[in-house]
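User: Hi! I have a protein structure encoded as tokens and I'd like to know what sequence might fold into it. I'm fairly new to this, so please keep things simple.
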């Protein structure tokens, strides 16, 4: 007789799920915070009220914000993976392949 097992994630898996969820929310928040001023600069919303320095540096700011949004957008899967499952770093004196202190 086969019994159906109740497949509930372990506490460790639950914490990983929570970490991924929090990381996704934070990335979405940061991307939104960067994308809103980018859209305002691109579409010149409220252009008549902008200070002179903002009009002068508009294209530079668009470039910086666009690169930041693209970088975070493209790197988000890697950021989520590394926050979900960080790998231990090898430090001097401990070689994981040798099994002990050196």
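Assistant: Happy to help. Inverse folding works backwards from shape to sequence: for each of the 102 positions I chose a residue that suits the local structure. Here it is:
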């Amino acid at each position: 007789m086969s019994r159906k097992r109740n497949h509930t994630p372990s506490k460790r898996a639950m914490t990983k799920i929570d970490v991924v969820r929090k990381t996704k929310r934070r990335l979405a928040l940061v991307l939104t915070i960067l994308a809103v001023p980018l859209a305002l600069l691109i579409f010149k919303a409220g252009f008549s009220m902008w200070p002179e320095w903002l009009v002068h540096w508009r294209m530079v700011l668009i470039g910086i914000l666009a690169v930041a949004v693209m970088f975070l957008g493209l790197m988000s899967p890697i950021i989520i993976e590394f926050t979900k499952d960080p790998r231990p770093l090898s430090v001097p004196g401990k070689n994981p392949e040798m099994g002990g202190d050196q």
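A useful reference point when you look it over: Residues 12-85 form one domain. Feel free to ask if any position seems puzzling.
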